[in-house]
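name: query_chain
kind: protein
chains: 1
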Amino acid sequence: MPIRRNRSKLMSPTTLTLLASQTLNCSLPTIHNSLMVSYNSNNLTLPTEATTPITLQLKTIASGSTFNLTYIQVIGLAKTNYDIFAKHKNDICRKFEHVLIQLFNSLKRSLSLIENLTQILHHFDYSPEVHANGYRTLILSHGHACLRTLEILKQVKAKHIARLHRRIHSLKLLQELKSWTKTLKVMEHMLSLAVGLVDCSDKHSLFTDFSQIPSNIELDYYKMVAYDSKHLFGRTCGFQFNRSMEILLTIILASFAAYYDTYNRSKTAAAASLATSSKYILFPEQRARKCAEILRNCDYLFCQSFWNLLEHDSIKKGSRYIAPNVTVSKYFQIGPEPIEINSIIVPPPTGPSSMQSKQLVNIKLLSHEIREGMDKLSLQRADLEGSPKIVLPMSDQLLMHVHGGGFIATSSATHEVYLKPWALGLEIPIVSVDYSLAPEYPFPRAIEECFYAYAWILQNASKLGWTGKTILFAGDSAGGNLITVVTIKAIEAGLRKPDAIVCFYTPFLLRYSMSPSRLMAMMDPLLNTNFLWRCVAAYAGIQCDGESHNDELSSTRVSTDNRFDEMQASNSKRLSPNQQVLDNKNKPPSKESSTIDLHHDRLTQIVGPRQLCILRKLSESKLLDHPHMSPLCVSDEILRQFPTTYLIPCARGKLISYCKSSLKVKFSFKDPFIDDNIEFARRLRSLNVPHQMTIVDELPHGYLDFGSVARDVGENNARVIHMLQNIVRQSHSNDIADLTSALTITS
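structure:
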């Protein structure tokens, strides 16, 4: 049954009565609270009469963290500044009045929505001890936006008497205040949609299929994605992360906008355009409009092209001065012969592609020193970055790595910025798989290549300087999805499974569905909502008119979905009963055709015909429900056999580690995939699978790649190496005692 909030009884709230005669004795106009906020809230009129006293009920929204005082201060300062500006009749003061009115009204509505959400937050947590889910992330982000707004209001109050009559100073502060007010209004829309999602959710699941969401909520969501993102990429870009990441994300977005200006020119000219991106840094409003336009209208080919700039020779040469050298760095190909292990045949990859089937698989071996057996790979001088000091015995542990990049971009080379420090810190061989990328090689090609590489590693352990004793998997983002699927395939085939898997900010559910953390994807400069769905569509082989590379690609993609119809049918029978929300059988009856046509017309006006085509095909695709695409849909029978799992998403707040059994998940609270990790960890816990979940503080999706350019990320990556060292030691001794029901909180 859907979750219903008890509006008459709150759970231990802290009641803050703001009296009209004191803090809020204001003549600011009010707007009635509404769960679905109108998009015409810009059309506010100046006040005509005083309001009545307002009582706001707030409560702690996260363990050890509350913004109650921040909200009081923001509202109080908004009132104070409004009273001062109301005494003056010049144009600047009137503009300040208007912005302060919008700020005040938006906060009123937002606090009402937050009050509703705080009553049900605990239903969606991983456990009573670990307070983490997308709803908490959204509320915390709103609080941090208010905190930054408070800084601007303090500057306005401090400077209005002496300096605000000077136009140059006043306009700058006015623009800052406008930007933060617009950001808070966008977050108000997000909170409103989150409240609507709660009413649609079943069994306390964080995910809701779009077919279960009322059409008005769906329309409001796409309006927000289409029209409001421009308010998030300007002066307030990246506010939800730490300050060093804010600067870096601003530079990335400026480069993104500048690259678009020279798109379809030579790669050298396009790369050179990044050096002329200063105008998009100096003029944030221009950057915001440009980036919003690009993300709304471009296809996945542009996004793929931008991120593949990292593969440009000049950038690769520069990265060599950033990443430390390792002794062995050998890139080679394996295949195409079938591999037999204990009577189990693993064929070479044959998945659909836009080109002639390429049966060879590219892998890279990284090692801090040469080990016995590596000479069988015929190491050349070019494979050695340093002079070998000694030939070490074979290692008992080996790490197989699969890189991220949305299934469509980057390679093992672009991820060496953290892989080489791993090789030096862990002192074990690392094999990174360079799988073929979508859309040229759509699902299941990448999975087949990674699974084939895994079988080859098992069969050729000695060539890699490995005894064959312990093998660990690690992957970030799309790579985390792939290593999880390889684990599933190994269990299904009866092949040896890895001893542990480490998943960094991994998407475990690629189905066309909504969750609170997915709402926040529109705020993410690196994994924006539009980019996210285009990546999924490219990986699934979904295309619309005008996007095909060639006719062969079109024909193979159509057959991809058909190929897995039978697999999906058999899988749906094996789904866990407590995962019914993930089962298509529970979808409600289809709408009347006339209603659908009207809804279709409205969506077309909002997102455009091409984007709507992608969204429609995603919603109709059965492929996205298959556990080889969405590991969260895997059966209990398979998941129960999982090795120790480590989940590592990203978050806002203190770094929290929860250890249980032997699974580790690492993610970010500000990650669009935090809900994936929470739901996956819940299933692991319900099946008593050893696991650990670590929530990383204030860093964005993809943070591993930024360790060399952002100090905070570099410090975190050093902690990641320490964590991996512990995993290696535990796997070596088979000691998982410290992974049993332990909760630690560190700064």
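note: Residues 14-200 form one domain.
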